[in-house]
Amino acid sequence: MEQALLTRLESAVARLETLAASGSDPSVSSRDLPGAASLDPAISVFEDLVADSLGRVSASAGKIGGQVVDATKILEEAFAALRELLVKAKRFQKPDLAGLAEFLKPLNNVMVKANSLTEGKRSDYFNHLKTVADSLTALAWIGYSGKNCGMSMPIAHVEESWQMAEFYSNKILVEYRNKNPDHIEWVKSLKELYVPGLRDYVKRFYPTGLAWGSVNSASLSSTSITKAPTASIPASPPPPKAPLCSTESVPSRPKEGMSAVFEEISSGKSVTAGLRKVTNDMKTKNRADRSGAVAATEKRGHTSSFSNNSKASPKFELQMGRKWSVENQIGNKNLIIDDCDSKQSVYIFGCKDSVLQVKGKVNNITLDKCTKVGIVFMDVVAACEIVNCNGVEVQCQGSAPTVSIDNTSGCQLYLSNDSLGTSITTAKSSEINVLIPGAGPDSDWVEHSLPQQYLHTLKNGEFTTAPVSHSGA
């Protein structure tokens, strides 16, 4: 009898010592004790999830080694921090935003630690590190505090977070599909940890958010988390209660948006009281400066300013020893480039009524936005390009692998016997004629017009394209 009594006394003393060490109130029930956490079904199931699913992730990481092991250890730290938060939440009331941020700080520190692994120079296991870092976002479901908190519901948040991490996990599957099965097993076990593991756990115990303590539980604040109260320091007296009726009026927060508009309309005041009255001289039809007529002087001034801006100084020079620039030449028929080599290019821009001769072999020739310009050249290594031109004539006296004509209206292309194998490409162009030498030395040039209309027909499930031919009666 005495032995049983002593046993009961020892257990009671042990319980009181535990309460004193934790700084809790004696009125806290036994389910709030750290030793009783394992009796909570939510905690016990979470521990089983960690031991089973997370254990398989750790086993697979051990086979791979390297930074994968380091990332998996951080994963274990995150789930351990989540368990501590689940236990702690049952001993406190739901906090405000500042208290919630302090409450989630241990978990946030682990996430920051995981993200730091992905920074800097990319390693061979970057996809593994990124998968772990992005997947830890799923543990933030514990911070869900309501519809207006900016987060999805806990179940949806876990699924969305894993979808973000799955982008990098799929890269691991593709990279190691036929190389190392340990990486494949690590990815599969990690996915099972979150989906369906963590998702089903949240769906079973916390579908609408974290379960906080009852009203009689201790209040949670930033000071209560960082420093627990001790018995030797007396509690500060509560602040004096404010009177129910005060002579000083407390300004209320003004309404914004459409609420303020409807409040003003329903107040009975004149809604148009603050509007200015529009007099006759302010109306558009009575204002002289708003007439629909356009002054002639204004139009002439606009035209003259445009024509002056369109004139640019002519240019004919070799730039950096690589590029011949011929620009804004008007009415100049004696432009000659004779000192050139195969490494140089020729660029003709904005010229009109001019003729250019290139006496030598160059790498590339380009005509851009030229009108009624003629060019005669010997050999081209790459191509001769004609872009945005009107009524130009181009003569190749040597060889040119490619002639490209784009967005051009009117082009006469003369080819020599050495350039008959030239490839001619056209796009958005019209009036393109190609002239080649005749059969004899004294024969005239033979002119061929390139088609600009095409007929597209569907045959056997595929479209065939052919130029349109016109025959006269």
UniProtKB/TrEMBL annotation:
It comes from Musa troglodytarum. One of its GO terms (cellular component) is cytoplasm. InterPro entries: Adenylate_cyclase-assoc_CAP, Adenylate_cyclase-assoc_CAP_C, Adenylate_cyclase-assoc_CAP_N, C-CAP_CF_C-like, CAP/MinC_C, CAP_C_sf, CAP_CS_N, CAP_N. GO terms for biological process: actin filament organization; cAMP-mediated signaling. Signal peptide: none annotated. Belongs to the CAP family. Residues 313-450 form the C-CAP/cofactor C-like domain. Pfam families: CAP_C, CAP_N, CAP_N-CM. Residues 228-250, 284-312 are annotated as: Disordered. PANTHER family: ADENYLYL CYCLASE-ASSOCIATED PROTEIN. PROSITE patterns: C_CAP_COFACTOR_C (PS51329), CAP_1 (PS01088). One of its GO terms (molecular function) is actin binding. Residues 303-312 have a biased composition (Polar residues). Gene3D superfamilies: 2.160.20.70, Adenylate cyclase-associated CAP, N-terminal domain. SUPFAM superfamilies: C-terminal domain of adenylylcyclase associated protein, N-terminal domain of adenylylcyclase associated protein, CAP. This is Adenylyl cyclase-associated protein.
